[in-house]
Design a protein that fits this description.
2 domains; alpha+beta; Arc Repressor Mutant, subunit A; 9% strand; 7 strands; H-NOX domain; 362 residues; disordered N terminus
């Protein structure tokens, strides 16, 4: 697989090509690198993009190309925190018509829920969801395609962008309770903590913001409930029409099952019955459909675990406990046994292999 310091190989890119992202996010990159001028143009062309495309912000580009572009730009122009810079300069005005909708949402929770509603229309094959607890809520972001890797800059752009939007909607001094990243942040903790003004953790299940419920539910100072309700309805209707329908999922039950497994793996218990319920099928029907397409639920779950294991174990400093959790195993012993069945070696021995040889057998 690709090292954390190299662009995504084209063979892997092709496999990851189903994800898309709107070109309005390209402007965030160009704004953050305004000081490099036209030196970025050859890099844009290398990834199949052009500066002029920011004039059509609602057009799509392949997600894997955009992510690879941002990663390579960070290296080429020696900007290790490029993603954070992008998020810090990405303002409400850059969201176009969303500016008014987010303002009219009335609360930070309402604004984030609107972003979740439009997620698949802004950037497909990407998780953005929330979990509400007693005192806090956690908003998680993760590209569901494990083949789109490395993606450190994209993850830090997303988290810093959400925080910047929250500060513009509430107060410049606003801060989350904590910030999680799926990648290692060794050597990056101080800079990240300074921007977020909160504890930052790496090697987590997903990129996430932990936010106080009282912050989420406090009304914006400028909120006018009766007028905002009417405005929200009008804006939501027009934006849904402008953005078009959500991406239509493949009719292949293999693809649908893979998508559900990827979304839930490491976040909740994954078995055939619960995936079938998500797809509104009986477990027996799902197993039959998968058999007709030449595979089984067990094979798809194992493939998902193997693919994610390769991604996780490529991260520097990751522990076996974190790897086991992200792969949905109850403990490290169960993960180690499964891993040895796949590869013939223990996870520890696998991690000690020479650079460039840490890949799982097909």
């Amino acid at each position: 697989m690709a090292s954390p310091h190299s662009p995504l190989p084209e063979s892997q890119s092709a496999r990851s090509g189903s994800g898309t992202i709107r070109l309005l996010f390209l402007k965030a990159l160009l704004d953050a690198l305004a000081d490099v001028g036209k030196r970025i143009d050859p890099l844009l062309r290398e990834h199949g993009m052009f500066r002029s495309q920011i004039d059509t912000p609602y057009d799509f580009v392949p997600l894997h190309r955009y992510v690879a572009l941002v990663e390579q730009a960070a290296r080429k122009f020696h900007r290790p925190y490029l993603g954070v810079e992008m998020g810090a300069t990405f303002g409400l005005a850059e969201m176009g018509p969303f500016y008014a909708l987010l303002r009219a949402s009335g609360t930070l929770r309402g604004a984030l829920n609107y972003l979740a509603l439009f997620q698949s229309r802004l950037q497909s094959r990407t998780l953005f969801d929330s979990r509400i607890d007693v005192d806090t809520s956690t908003y998680s972001y993760r590209i569901e395609d494990e083949g789109v890797w490395p993606r450190l800059q994209d993850s830090e752009f997303a988290m810093s962008g959400y925080v910047n939007l929250a500060r513009q909607l509430t107060s410049p001094k606003w801060a989350p309770v904590a910030v999680h990243f799926e990648h290692s942040i060794n050597g990056r903790e101080e800079r990240l903590s300074q921007y977020f003004r909160a504890p930052v953790l790496g090697n987590q299940l997903a990129n996430a913001l932990v936010i106080r419920n009282e912050d989420l539910d406090q009304s914006f100072a400028s909120a006018i409930p009766s007028e905002d309700a009417k405005l929200r309805t009008i804006l939501e209707w027009h934006l849904l029409d402008l953005m078009g329908p959500e991406s239509t999922p493949s009719e292949s039950f293999v693809s649908l099952t893979r998508d559900v497994i990827a979304r839930w793996l490491g976040r909740t218990h994954v078995d055939c019955a619960t995936v079938a319920a998500e797809l509104k099928l009986s477990e027996r029907s799902l197993r039959r459909r998968l058999t007709e397409e030449g595979t089984s639920f067990r094979e798809l779950l194992q493939d998902a675990r193997k693919e994610r294991a390769q991604t996780i174990l490529s991260k520097p400093g990751v522990s076996l406990a974190v790897a086991a959790e992200q792969l949905g195993y109850s403990d490290t012993a169960a993960f180690s046994r499964a891993f040895k069945e796949w590869t013939g070696v223990s996870p520890g021995r696998f991690l000690r292999k020479p650079e460039g040889k840490t890949s799982l057998p097909a």
